[in-house]
Design brief:
Layout (H helix, E strand, L loop, with lengths): L8 H6 L4 H29 L4 H22 L12 H21 L4 H8 L1 H13 L6 H18 L8 H22 L6 H16 L2 H4 L7 H27 L2 H4 L5 H14 L5 H32 L1
């Protein structure tokens, strides 16, 4: 990585075969899951009092101002023009749409359930990396994607009283988030990570403003304001970890480690709301996690085989 915060083409090309880059990508992914779970916990708490679009606006505004000021001070925005691409537009638009759908569902679904649905993104990323990024995904990992999909259906329970429009919104948010991450991989390597973060956060901030027309915004109290600022901080840290993870290693390798989010979600869901998922939801979560772990193990075997053939 260059001193100005950019990533060279050689960095990206070698990330798939460099064990150090792979380990760093996995560590960043695990850190991202914790940061995002903490942010979502604070957002769900604040959404019990304030409209969804208002909480989105405050969180994304905080993230935009903080990362923008910090990146500008450190000179990390000097090459921001490299990020202004078609892929960046897709990333920012997908990010804004996914945020609206996810935050709407988050305010109305049990915490562990919606986080379980969100974990389908790991398997959808594996599929997307094959369809749009040209990464090699064999029939075994496609089978794991199918198992994960079945697990997702166990969580949202189509046809039951638990299935509603918010469950559909959660699935839609997951698909849009998958589009966002695939677009991230397509952004030129020389585009600085802080620039990508600033642009995405700014678009989410602007996209939430029309909500003031359709929802009755109210002045937040000190506790709600503190929670939304805290959510913005944790979200910012999560975005940095996520972008760094995707750009450090192959998407199909780091994606399964999103399942660490379920550990945090179960602990936070019980600790904050005393909620324990029902049996079907737990089975669905277990199926998604098992499919993701298998996907990772399969990729590791293939990498070892490629290295042995090279040697």
């Amino acid at each position: 990585m260059a001193v100005d915060g950019t990533v060279s083409a050689a960095d990206v090309e070698s990330s798939a075969v460099n064990p150090a880059n792979t380990a760093r990508g996995i560590a960043f992914m695990m850190g991202a899951t914790l940061m995002f779970c903490l942010a979502d916990t604070l957002m769900k708490l604040s959404a019990a009092v304030l409209p969804t679009t208002e909480t989105m606006f405050v969180r994304s505004l905080v993230a935009t101002l903080v990362v923008g000021a910090g990146a500008s001070y450190m000179g990390k925005l000097n090459h921001w023009r490299f990020a202004i691409t078609h892929a960046m537009a897709i990333r920012a638009g997908s990010d804004a749409s996914a945020s609206l759908l996810f935050q709407s569902a988050l305010a109305r679904m049990p915490f562990a359930d919606i986080m379980g649905v969100a974990q389908l993104q790991s398997l959808s990323l594996t599929a997307g990396s094959a369809l749009f990024l040209g990464e090699q995904v064999g029939w075994r990992r496609w089978s794991a994607v199918t198992v994960g999909l079945i697990g997702g259906l166990l969580i949202v329970k189509p046809g039951s009283s638990a299935f509603n429009w918010w469950a559909i919104a959660a699935v839609g948010a997951m698909m849009l988030a998958t589009t966002r991450e695939i677009a991230t991989r397509k952004i030129p390597a020389r585009a600085p990570v802080p620039a990508i973060m600033v642009i995405s956060s700014a678009v989410v901030t602007m996209a939430s403003l029309p909500g003031a027309v359709f929802q009755q915004w109210a002045a937040p109290g000190k506790s709600e304001l503190a929670m939304m600022i805290g959510a913005g901080f944790f979200s910012l840290c999560g975005q940095f970890c996520m972008i760094s993870s995707i750009r450090s290693a192959e998407l199909s390798v780091v994606a399964p480690f999103r399942y660490f989010a379920m550990i945090w979600a179960l602990l936070l869901g019980y600790g904050v709301w005393q909620h324990i998922p029902d049996t079907l939801s737990l089975l669905g979560i277990a199926a998604i996690a098992a499919a993701g772990i298998y996907t990772f193990r399969r990729e590791q075997l293939l990498q070892n085989k490629r290295r042995s053939l090279t040697n």
